[in-house]
TrEMBL record:
GO terms for molecular function: hydrolase activity. This is Isochorismatase family protein. Residues 25-198 form the Isochorismatase-like domain. It comes from Haloferax marinisediminis. It comes from the Archaea. PANTHER family: ISOCHORISMATASE HYDROLASE (PTHR43540:SF1), PEROXYUREIDOACRYLATE/UREIDOACRYLATE AMIDOHYDROLASE-RELATED (PTHR43540). Keywords: Hydrolase. InterPro entries: Isochorismatase-like_dom, Isochorismatase-like_hydrls, Isochorismatase-like_sf. It holds the Pfam family Isochorismatase.
Length: 209
């Protein structure tokens, strides 16, 4: 980052850490086959993200940390339940109920106790049961992994912050279709909405619960 940009952010006191709370949950965003299989026009190779997310899942499962998986899914042939988003990304129509593209990637260690949450918009909070579950569980910290960094990760992170959660993004456990939006959004989320931290650190935090 240039010295001018660094000075601008430092002047605004951005990049302040919120830290970890006492009661976390793990939110795994959209690591469904439609995004993790390059055969789908929306997909890419997220093997590394899946491997690192499995480390977080192991720590969460071993320490009774609640886990929620999200997936984007339409039950309408025209994708009408996506609303205007469908106009922007027409190939969301591939993420249709009953297709393999809405299945959580088989490489992920999904436990019977994990919750699968269906959504129609980028944020895991929009029009879903996520807030109600987190409140019922007494969660104060939300660890957000998955894809894409510039899309559904960012939208979920912004809403998590707005809803009062300490929000943690494990840097190596989120991915995108291109490196430029990935890196710029990690930088911006860390400055404004979340703590972007190394996976090893976040695994240690979950292990301590």
């Amino acid at each position: 980052m240039s010295s001018d940009k660094r000075a601008t952010y430092e002047r605004a006191s951005m990049d302040t850490r919120v830290g970890y709370g006492a009661h976390p949950a793990l939110l795994v965003v959209d690591l469904q086959k439609g995004f993790t299989d390059p055969e789908n026009p929306l997909g890419g190779d997220l093997t590394a993200v899946i491997e690192r997310t499995n480390r977080l899942l192991e720590a969460a499962h071993d320490n009774d940390v609640p886990v929620v998986f999200t997936r984007i899914i339409t039950s309408h042939e025209t994708g009408a339940d996506y609303g205007i988003w469908m106009k922007k990304i027409p190939r969301l129509d591939t993420l249709a109920a009953g297709t393999k593209w809405v299945e959580i990637d088989d490489r992920l260690d999904v436990a019977d106790t994990d919750h699968i949450l269906d959504k129609r918009q980028a944020s895991g909070f929009h029009g879903t049961e996520l807030s109600s579950m987190l409140v019922a569980w007494g969660v104060d910290t939300l660890v957000v992994t998955g894809c894409t960094t510039s899309g559904c990760i960012r939208a979920s992170v912004v809403d998590a912050c707005a809803n009062g959660y300490r929000t943690i993004v494990p840097e190596e456990a989120v991915g995108d279709r291109a490196i430029e939006p990935h890196e710029s959004n990690l930088f911006d989320m860390n400055a404004k909405y979340a703590d972007v931290r190394p996976v090893d650190e976040v695994v240690s935090y979950l292990t301590e619960q």
